[in-house]
TrEMBL record:
Example GO biological process: ATP synthesis coupled electron transport
Subunit organization: Component of the cytochrome c oxidase (complex IV, CIV), a multisubunit enzyme composed of a catalytic core of 3 subunits and several supernumerary subunits. The complex exists as a monomer or a dimer and forms supercomplexes (SCs) in the inner mitochondrial membrane with ubiquinol-cytochrome c oxidoreductase (cytochrome b-c1 complex, complex III, CIII).
GO MF: copper ion binding; cytochrome-c oxidase activity; oxidoreductase activity
Species classification: Eukaryota, Metazoa, Ecdysozoa, Arthropoda, Hexapoda
The protein's name: Cytochrome c oxidase subunit 2
Amino acid sequence: MSTWSNLGLQDSASPLMEQLTFFHDHALLILVMITVMVGYLMIMLFYNSYTNRFLLHGQTIEVIWTILPAIILLFIAFPSLRLLYLLDEINEPSITLKSIGHQWYWSYEYSDFLNVEFDSYMIPTNELPVDGFRLLDVDNRVVLPINSQIRILVTAADVIHSWTVPALGVKVDGTPGRLNQTNFLMNRPGLFYGQCSEICGANHSFMPIVIESVPSNYFIKWISNNLNS
Ligand code: CUA
């Protein structure tokens, strides 16, 4: 999760988020190179007192400074498209999780398991345990197995919400009357925190998401306990 002074991306917990981090760093590097180059030119222009009164056109330089930025942009465009299609690809998910956005909480359904379903509310500050995370912890966590392809189906019951978990590289809008799909694979155990990221009303900031990544035998235990109750 994100903590104080963490200005960059969170540590990735899935291969897709890893790719997103690589792409972010790649794009940032190009951005820094352009900024330094343009900044240098502007400063040099400011201190340069020589001018050429007869310089009205320069075919060669204009061809160069038109084509070169276009080529540089291709170095961002192609990796970006690669990632876009990579994120959209669903390969044989072993579990499907439905998450439905409400004002203002998430409800979840595990329809592979006799439809286990529950609501997930934020824990209010006055009920928070000392080791809890304010505005981030929930009463019922989403428990999911590690190293498994998981399909998420997102929708909403009232207004548009967005199911967003940064460490997993997932951000999908839940829209009433529509069913959106995404997928991820968690490659390490832990708790992954997320928040709704579509302005959905007064308590928009109070509908967090907590994913509990556990080994698959723990997950089977958890789901069978919930089947019995
Ligand atoms: Cu739901 Cu913002």
